[in-house]
Fold this sequence. Notes:
The chain has about 120 residues and is mainly α. The protein is built from five helices and two strands, in the order H-H-H-H-E-E-H. A two-stranded antiparallel ribbon has the order 1-2.
Amino acid sequence: MILTEGKTKHIDCLKQMLPIRDALDVISGKWKILILTSIMQGNKRFKEIETSIPKINPKVLSKELKDMEEHQLIKRIVYDDHPVLIEYTATEYSHSLKKVMMELHAWGVNHRKKLFGK
């Protein structure tokens, strides 16, 4: 980030922080990125997503899926079969987060090495 000097420093800092806060509001928490990763890897049904993410509670998964749908990261598709079939897919918009997700992965790998030597 570009840091500025003088009277505009505070204003410029806020201009840099607001979009970051907005982004973190959308992807915050320990589950959203993991859920999106699971869906991008081909898990489309609720149970598949739940099974792919260790220790996620079904109630939490349901809430996070709804939130991600509101933010247009995923699409919920209802097939009117018997029984009703529901699938989740990543939207084109969510793919704009791939670079961020890859950077978080790389940072996490390095962080684990630094802390645990793994």
